[in-house]
Design brief:
The complex is a heterotrimer of chains A (170), B (391) and C (102). By secondary structure, chain A is an all-alpha fold. Chain A has helices spanning 5-26, 30-50, 54-79, 91-115, 132-141, 144-165, and one strand at residues 121-122. Chain A has 2 domains: 5-130, NADH-ubiquinone/plastoquinone oxidoreductase chain 6, subunit NuoJ (Four Helix Bundle (Hemerythrin (Met), subunit A), Up-down Bundle); 131-170. By secondary structure, chain B is mainly alpha-helical. In chain B, 66% of the residues lie in helices and 3% in strands. In chain B, strand 1 and strand 2 (106-110) form a beta hairpin. In chain B, helix 1 (2-37) crosses helix 11 and helix 7 packs antiparallel against helix 8 (239-264). In chain C, helix 1 (6-26) packs antiparallel against helix 2 and helix 2 (30-55) runs antiparallel to helix 3. In chain C, 54% of the residues are buried. The chains are: A mainly alpha (170), B mainly alpha (391), C mainly alpha (102). Chains in contact: A-B, A-C. The interface between A and B is medium-sized, with 19 and 24 residues. Strand 1 (121-122) of chain A pairs antiparallel with strand 1 (4-5) of chain C.
Chain lengths: 170, 391, 102
């Protein structure tokens, strides 16, 4: 049975994403979690490329992995807080939480498998409407209001971050 | 399909080999340029006019003791230089060096791959390059390295903003993110370049200044200068890992020079059309260089020059002759113009290094946030208004 | 098999979301909790892009783009808050930030 290259790419990068995500949750030092999260974002960028979302893949690497995570890494390095101490965890939370999460995951997977038949598959090149031209066109016609609103949101975030992080002047 | 894979592999090998040699000899050129600015000869003894100096440096760096201090965070310490050099070399894969050429019957472009989002790919690779420096500073377990690493990363991400805005302005005019199409829309002559026809002088200047800061070059090299902060983020590195950081810096320099040429200076398009004789320009340049070398060989200033300069003269005249052959002109001429323009910008990098003092860190950060970023935004606004008014 | 079934992408998104939720609930360090939130947002982005492929419409990409922008703004302000909390309490353990309790 010939396996197409995009299936191999999907399996490889999905495994990298899941292993890195487990690493994010399991590691005790925040810097290892942050670098594993960068790995998750990188493998997700490859998956976006497989889904034909070229602009979103580039935006994921530039914005998420290249700016937001750099900010995380900066704050971890500046605070230098060290590895997390493993005391005082509530046992009840873990007892209830893990089965509930597994149940959530199982339910979502079951419904997804039922709704979408295996015949609808993702080929590389199946969707070519994700180029920068298409996104730009939609962004400035149909989604103009959210675009302007997010600009104001970014301005608020900038002002908020500057105010919160400055030294107190007496 | 097979031909495509084989051709791409050959292109990748050629680009890699040429890039590595260029990185080594760029260091030689830099040392010579700075030396002549400071009225001294520079590397002179190792080989004729120091031409084997890069080879000597490579041998020294490879055979030096590769010391890993015991107090460093091993995995991050080993990953950081690897990350820096990988991201720096990745950007070269989308840069076009020339038009589509025909080699032994196969049509192929002088570029490893032409992505529709080529410009975004280069921005993404330079964003990820910040990690190499931040992790190098952190893993060294040394306060000076950490401070140097944090300062350098903060500088790089702060200057990414004006750089991206300066890139966005010619993109508004050229309407494409693919690097090959960007050059094709500047086809014709110097009057069609984005710098002249598009009026992007301000973006060009903002881009060049931001490029100096992105690559940690003087006057923005405070985080890694030898007399500041010990040596910045690469204090604890030795031998090949140290060499990786320097190769990454030069590769970044080459990348931003190529970007400036592609975005603003018309890529591989000759400054005036071929019918007015621009195909003879390379031959004229190399021919006159050969004649100057022969003259200096005849009236030698130093004893060794009596033997080396005539050899250089003959080599240059030979290269001038090669440029006259019509068989190679279709791919050699665009390559020459691209390399000449990139070389001019790289020379400007070295010229500035030999001339200007460095910024203090707070002056550096104030410069980007209070001056460069508003100027880049205003430029984008004005460009957008002009494009909307004209079309 | 010449393509990846859409259900696999959605399952991957669910797995990443569940892992993010696990990190959010079980970890005690503020920064790790914040990173788990970012992981959940990434999982949702993957879902949006998958559905955009399924319906052959670019709107999913745009939603994903806005989620990225909002996440970036939230990360900036959230990290500033974390810096302030650390300055005042010298700890990043969320169990110890309980001075308004009782």
């Amino acid at each position: 049975m010939p396996i197409a290259p995009d299936v191999i790419l999907f399996v490889v990068f999905a495994l990298i994403a899941v292993v890195s995500a487990i690493n994010v949750v399991v590691q005790s030092h925040p810097i290892s979690s942050a670098l594993s999260l960068v790995g998750v974002m990188g493998s997700l960028a490859v998956l976006y490329l497989l889904l034909g979302a070229e602009f979103i893949a580039a935006a994921q690497v530039i914005v998420y992995a290249g700016a937001v995570m750099v900010l995380f890494v900066f704050v971890i390095m500046l605070l230098n807080a060290g590895a997390e101490v493993k005391k005082g965890r509530s046992f009840m939370v873990q007892l209830l939480g893990v089965p509930l999460l597994v149940a959530l995951l199982g339910l979502v997977t079951y419904f997804v498998q039922r709704i979408y038949s295996p015949r609808e598959s993702v080929h590389f090149g199946g969707f070519t409407g994700g180029s920068a031209q298409d996104i730009g066109h939609a962004l400035f016609t149909a989604y103009l209001l959210p675009f302007e609103v997010t600009s104001v949101l970014i301005l608020i975030a900038i002002v908020g971050a500057v105010v919160l992080a400055r030294k107190e002047m007496d | 399909m097979d031909a495509f894979i084989v051709i791409t592999l050959i292109k990748a090998l050629v680009v890699f080999a040429v890039l590595m040699t260029t990185l080594a000899y760029l260091q030689w050129v830099e040392r010579k340029v700075i030396a002549h600015i400071q009225v001294r000869p520079g590397p002179y003894r190792v080989g004729p006019h120091g031409l084997l100096q890069p080879l000597a440096d490579v041998i020294k760096l490879i055979t030096k003791e590769d010391l890993i201090p015991p107090y460093v965070n091993k995995p991050l310490y080993l990953v950081a230089p690897f990350l820096a050099i990988t991201m720096a070399l990745l950007s070269i894969s989308v840069i076009p060096f020339g038009p589509v050429i025909e080699v032994f019957g196969y049509k192929t472009a002088m570029q490893l791959t032409d992505l529709n989002i080529g410009v975004l790919f280069i921005l993404a690779a330079s964003s990820m390059g910040v990690y190499g420096i931040a992790l190098a500073g952190w893993s060294s377990n040394n306060k000076y390295a950490l401070l140097g690493g944090l300062r350098s990363s903060a500088q790089m991400i702060s200057y990414e903003l004006p750089m991206s805005l300066a890139i966005a302005a010619p993109l508004l005019i050229s309407n494409t993110l693919s690097l090959r199409e960007l050059v094709q829309r500047q086809d014709g002559s110097m009057l069609n370049w984005n710098l002249v026809h598009g009026g992007q002088i301000v973006s060009f200047l903002v881009f060049i200044v931001a490029a100096f800061a992105e690559t940690n070059r003087v006057p923005f090299d405070l985080p890694e200068a030898e007399n500041e902060l010990v040596a910045g983020f690469h204090t604890e590195y030795s031998s090949m890992k140290f060499a990786s950081f320097f190769m990454a810096e030069y590769a970044n320099m080459i990348t931003v020079s190529c970007m400036a040429v592609l975005l603003f200076l018309g890529g591989w398009v000759a400054p005036w059309p071929a019918k007015y004789g621009s195909s003879l320009a390379p031959s004229l340049i190399f021919g006159s260089a050969g004649l100057v070398a022969l003259y200096h060989g005849a009236n030698a200033a130093r004893k060794r020059d009596k033997y080396t300069f005539p050899v250089f003269g003959v080599v240059f005249l030979g290269i001038a002759g090669i440029f006259l052959l019509p068989m190679v002109q279709s791919w050699l001429l665009p390559l020459f113009w691209f390399c000449a323009k990139t070389g001019l910008i790289l020379f400007a990098f070295m010229w500035v290094r030999g001339t200007l003092p460095r910024f203090r860190y707070d002056q550096l950060m104030a410069f980007t946030w209070k001056f460069l970023f508003p100027v880049a935004m205003l430029n984008l606004l004005v460009t957008g208004l002009v494009v909307a008014w004209v079309s | 098999m010449n393509g990846v079934p859409i259900a696999w992408y959605l399952t991957l998104s669910a797995v990443l979301f569940a892992l993010g939720a696990a990190g959010f609930l079980f970890r005690r360090s503020i920064i790790t909790v914040f990173m788990s939130i970012e992981l959940m947002l990434n999982a949702v982005n993957l879902s949006f892009v998958t559905f955009s492929y399924h319906h052959k419409d670019v709107s999913g990409h745009l939603f994903s783009f806005f989620v990225m922008v909002v996440a970036a703004a939230e990360a900036a302000v959230g990290l500033a808050i974390i810096l302030t909390v650390f300055k005042n309490r010298a700890t990043l353990n969320i169990d110890e930030v309980n001075s308004m309790k009782n």
